[in-house]
Design brief:
This protein has eight helices and four strands, in the order H-E-H-H-E-H-H-E-H-H-E-H. By secondary structure, the chain is mainly alpha-helical. It has two domains: 74 residues, Orthogonal Bundle (Recoverin, domain 1); 68 residues, EF-hand (Recoverin, domain 1, Orthogonal Bundle), CATH 1.10.238.10. Strands 1-2 form a two-stranded antiparallel sheet. Helix 1 packs across helix 4 and helix 6 runs antiparallel to helix 7.
């Protein structure tokens, strides 16, 4: 997506993320925080993508990324809300072949820690399961999707 295609609410959300990492209100964030700032927006770039963005936005390796650079990169990988919700639903439905609205917590843990380009640490998977999973080992993903995409 281009910056010009962002809705005002999306632009404001990106600015809020930037300001959280621009502690001294200088109009710059540390390039080392780029991935965290993008992840705060639930954009979830891979480590490789973060490195490429850092090289693009800070080619002289000053250690700083401007607001305009951050906005450009965030817009480029921005998911319109409905598209993101649809993609997450479809991902869960791959593993929920009976469309029950839940999968086993153990299956989710295996998916999160072993599948994809960048599996997450076991501790992170366990935090998600603890927050949204039931005590009987079932993970009802509806509330997770709702919270993740708001």
């Amino acid at each position: 997506m281009r910056v010009a295609d962002l809705r005002q609410v999306e632009h404001d959300r990106i600015r809020k993320a930037f300001r959280l990492f621009d502690e001294n209100n200088t109009g710059f964030i540390p390039s080392s925080e780029l991935g965290n700032a993008l992840r705060w927006l639930c954009l979830i770039p891979s480590e490789r993508e973060v490195k490429l963005f850092q090289w693009e936005l800070d080619p002289d390796e000053t250690g700083w990324i401007s607001w305009q650079g951050f906005l450009k990169v965030a817009a480029r990988i921005w998911w319109p809300a409905q598209t993101l919700v649809t993609c997450i639903w479809e991902a869960f439905l791959v593993f929920d072949d009976k469309t029950t609205g839940h999968i086993s917590s153990e299956l989710l843990k295996n998916i999160l820690t072993k599948v994809g380009r960048e599996p997450i640490p076991i501790k992170e998977a366990e935090k998600i399961i603890k927050r949204y999973g039931r005590k009987d080992g079932i993970f009802p993903y509806i509330s997770f999707i709702r919270d993740f995409t708001k």
